[in-house]
Amino acid sequence: MRYAVFSDVHSNLEAFLACLDFLKNAKIDKYLFLGDIVGYGADPKECISLLRAINADCVAGNHDRAVIGLTDIGYFNNVAKSSVLWTRENISEADRLFLSGLGLVKETKGYCLVHGTLSHPDEFDYMSDVRRADEDFYTLKTKVCFLGHSHRPGIYIEDKDKILYQGSGTLALEEGRRYIVNAGSIGQPRDGDPRACFCIYDEDALSFEFQRVNYDVESAQKKIREAGLPESLAVRLAVGR
Fold first, then answer.
1. Any idea which of 26-35, 54-63, 119-128, 178-187 has the lowest mean pLDDT?
2. Which CATH architecture is the domain 2-239 placed in?
């Protein structure tokens, strides 16, 4: 099986379409989505519709839950709050029902999906260091866990009594090791590279491969501005921060 693993689309239709177009020739068997289809960008309805159309395995992100009132936005910064409130007014009841049906964790025989951390999925912490990874490896029951939330791609590797870290690129899986993979962000990368980011997991070839895809940033920025969303949400798309 070959999986396209992606996260944090954040209502960025241009980025989402560019990635799906790239994947048309990638022989993908299944899509895995790690949360935050909405928030920040100007096309929440369209992105939800696309996500539903590809029949992905999905979990909820903090923005997905905030938009339907399941996560308190009191801890959100003002920009994030503004985008949540705007999104609430710009999605349908069917969209809300879809978002409300997303769980926090999805586990299969081969992999586990979560937005933030597996050890505290409802708190939406960031997988930010080896200590956090160690907590999640303790909880993890599968060989691989995929997550997002930080918008920065990377892989934590459990190797016997130590945890290693690798940034984006390609990695061959090894026997006896387990992996926590941050797929990065399609709609709002924050690692200094503005291109949309996702991961391809080849279960048969035992490999992870990160991909970066160019998209029409200016069009996405224009939509954000025309929607009256905070200017910073448009600006950051061009710099990947």
1. 119-128
2. 4-Layer Sandwich (3.60)
75 CB-side CA count, 13 A: 8
Query: How many C-beta neighbours within 10 Å does residue 147 have?
Result: 26
Which helix (H) or strand (E) is 145 found in, with range? strand 144-147
Give, as one character, the DSSP assignment of residue 119.
Answer: S
pTM here is 0.95
Residue 231 structure tokens: 């200017």
* pLDDT, the chain, mean: 96
196 forms bridges with which residues in the sheet?
213
Assess contact for 238 and 232: CB atoms under 8 A: no
Residues 170 and 209: beta-carbon distance below 8 Å: yes
Asked if 139 and 105 count as a contact pair (C-beta separation under 8 A), the reply is no
Element (H, E) at 136: helix 130-139
Cα pseudo-dihedral 212, 215, 217, 223, rounded to 10: -130
Distance CA 99, CA 97 (A): 5
Q: How far apart are CA 188 and CA 16, in angstroms?
A: 11
The domain spans of the chain are 2-239
Backbone angles phi, psi at 98, to 5 degrees: -60, -50
In this prediction, residue 161 carries a pLDDT of 84
pLDDT score, position 169: 81
